[in-house]
Fold this protein.
Amino acid sequence: MKKVADNIEQINQVINQACQKSMRNPDEIRIIAVTKYVSIDRASEALEAGVADLGENRDEGLLQKWEVLRDKPVWHYIGTLQSRKVKHIIDKVEYIHSLDRLSLAQEINKRANKTVNCLVQVNVSGEQSKHGLSSEEVIPFIKSLRPFENIRIAGLMTMAPLTDDEHVIRECFSTLRELRNEVQRLNLTFAPCQELSMGMSNDFAIAIEEGATMIRIGTALVGEED
Ligand SMILES: *Cc1c(COP(=O)(O)O)cnc(C)c1O
């Protein structure tokens, strides 16, 4: 496999180009290395190469790596989260990118010992196979979170549809940005909603052009092992 450091260099070039195109500052973009397909060693290599943030989409994967790497990285939980798993990960992660229902918010709020940064997952494209709230549900949902004092809505997250049609992908990301701006205009203290978690290996350049502040990159950054 290619060195993570070499992959980072390539990714940074793409980030810089996308930032130039959209007149953004590359410092605004946080790379989350998605390590779900790779070993603890490979995740360590990413940290040594300068990655600060790791993302996992299953509690088992997160716990295994956490046992070894502990607080070296900032941990992001990016996958579907069952309520009964919350207690296992809650004190280990800094961000949960997949808040998509009230029952989950209730459980996070109950189990948390400190404020947890949550991103609301939005299914912008409306694909059946994807988790997340519809665009229309987002504002009412966020307003309903006011009673949960341990939850801070840090932003919104989405996954673009699987397609080669750049226009469709771009539309998905720009819709999420507009929705984020709408939440910000509500001026809710528990929902500053600054972050846009969008863009993966195949579409992160478009995501950056459309305002992404967190890109979640697996294959292009750490690769895939079996
Ligand atoms: C796996 C995964 C990623 C990374 O996907 P790549 O295409 O390998 O970059 C990003 N976000 C989520 C939610 C994932 O499950």
Observations:
- The CA atoms of residues 171 and 210 lie 9 Å apart.
- The first strand starts at residue 30 and ends at 34.
- The pocket of pyridoxal-5'-phosphate is lined by residues 34, 36, 57, 78-79, 159, 200-202, 216-220 (CB under 6 Å).
- The chain has a mean pLDDT of 97.
